[in-house]
Amino acid sequence: MWAGALLFPPLGLVLLWMRRTRVVFKIVGSLAIAVLGIAHLFLVYGMRMELSGQGMPSFFTFRSKESHYDRLEESRKRQATPVSDAAPVTTPSPAAAPANTPATTPAATGYWTDFRGPGRKGHYDEMPILTRWPSQGLPRLWRQPAGEGYASFVVAGGLAYTIEQRRGREVVAAYHVESGREAWTDGWEAKFSESMGGDGPRTTPVWHDGRIYALGAEGEFRCLDARTGKLHWRRNILTENGAANIQWGVSSSPLVVDEKVVVMPGGPNGKSVTAYHRLTGEPVWSALDDKAAYTSPMVVTLGGRRQLLLVSAQRAMGLTVEKGELLWDYPWVTEYGVNASQPIVAGPNRFFISAGYDHGAALVEITPQGNRFAVRTVWSNNRMKNRFNSAVLYEGHVYGLDEGILACMNLETGDLKWKGGRYGYGQLLRASGHLVVLTETGDAVLVRPTPEKHDELARFSALEGRTWNHPAIDGGRLLVRNAAEMACYRIGR
Fold first, then answer.
1. Which comes out higher in pLDDT, residue 37 or 197?
2. Fewer CB in 10 Å around end: N or C, the chain?
3. 83 φ, ψ to 5°?
4. Phi, psi of 148 (to 5 degrees)
5. CA distance 233 to 50
């Protein structure tokens, strides 16, 4: 019996219950064989466990990292074979485009060139999207393996850009939007590894004026030619600013504004926020002593002044674009320093901010007062807790994932209108008066946002596995990825 259990635990379990012995011994033996069976899954069959955004074991896979990298490398090797770029990298599936879909489609327009789209707001307004999805899901253009990490895509000139972990290297990669075929890569030796979140880079690259600005999880910062991948300049924002990496790695996407590119290394002695010249990489200014958080800087107009809106591990703040001078600040301290949700500009002089770990949300108002600003809390509560998911604003209401559950909140009052839809720690965008939600389990979901009720219209499986990456939409193409695979679907009308 025990020999059978060692070789194949279910066999041992059958043999145990066939024996003539007391039930109590069978129960104890069954528990022992169950433990042995779990050990088999991990040690013999290579099962791995991943944590959900709540920190609980939720995702199990039999895909080893080595086999995953082998599959990824084989995929890219096949792509290197000279073929027409219009040919997809995967065979058609039930979710592929129908037969009457044109063989060629317009190239991506370059609308989604920044993290979470224009203004970093998570809004797609370029063209109408499909608001009635086929029962089998949106038409799929391609789907293929991806390197590890939590970056999203930006798109310009028919190419989609992201950053991935490939074995011991961080790799910036450009893909043809219509086919998924790899156009170029640029990589360097680096591997950020963290037991809860996993391996790989976290920041989404930025496209600006024919250049890609990419930032790795250990501070490597590169400016590359967007068409060829040629290196223009490089820095390491942690080492040169005397900054220690934060617990879950550098996660803040660079911000290009005027002739500068702004990053948040979190260094001491006035080097928490740093601006480099976008063409040369030379330092322009640095400011503050705050520890870095996981949000990305934004350029906004509040209180009648164009400024940088940033969130560190301790506070939200406004800085001048020209020199990084502090205009105002608002205390915002979250457990573990996890400020990871993007603020939302909510009016001429107001912004919405949220954080998870039982922190909550607030509507903040800033008023000009001389050369600085006075700051006050309009309201605050714990009814919207965006952990590392960012909300969107639509018709006076905030829609976001409150610790994994979709919620609707009145912006003016902070009143919770409803909660519904357990989508986990995924991400969402606003498009054509609807919400496009990418759930933590990889489903794409269409929701009609109304303050009356949660109204889910459609859903299909877009990816497999834990999905924390932001979706992107450009030229009517929905681009999604996680730490295992990436895919592109036609969502435009």
1. 197
2. C
3. -145, 170
4. -75, 165
5. 36
